[in-house]
Amino acid sequence: MRFVLWGTYCDDALEKRGPYREEHLAGLQGLKDAGTLITLGPTEGSTHVFGIYEADSKEQVEALVKADVYWRNGIWTEVQVYPWIQAF
């Protein structure tokens, strides 16, 4: 099943993410390689994050988010996960 992630970044995210960026991107690449992450990235201006995951449950996606270094260090400040039905 697919899930949509929508969330927000902290103020000055571009500066604050620096120490965590390599770990964050490596983790995302691992999820992508495993087929769990379809796509993820910031909106222009890095105020919001959007992603699409392939997972067994909403709880699985939420656990992946909470394990991400951006969440653990306050770069992502709020994240919501929604089941998604892909029409096209």
What do you see in this structure?
With 88 residues, the protein is an alpha+beta fold. It is built from 4 helices and 4 strands. Strands 2-3-1-4 form a 4-stranded antiparallel beta sheet. Strand 2 and strand 3 form a beta hairpin. It starts with a strand and ends with a strand.
The geometry reads as: globular
**How many strands appear in the DSSP assignment?**
4
Structural class, please? alpha+beta
User: Helical percent range?
Assistant: 25-40%
What distance lies between the first and last C-alpha atoms, to the nearest angstrom?
A: 15 Å
Number of helices: 4
Mean pLDDT, as a whole number? 97
Q: Would you list the SSEs in sequence order as H and E?
A: EHHEEHHE
Given as residue ranges, the uncertain stretches (5+ residues, pLDDT < 50) are none
% residues in beta strands: 25-35%
Rg for CA atoms: 12 Å
Name the strands of the widest sheet in spatial order.
2-3-1-4
Biggest pleated sheet: 4 strands, antiparallel
Summarize this entry quickly.
Helix content is 35%, strand content 34%.
Write the layout of secondary structure elements.
Elements: E1 2-9, H1 13-16, H2 21-33, E2 37-42, E3 48-54, H3 58-67, H4 69-72, E4 76-84
Antiparallel strand pairs: 1-3, 1-4, 2-3
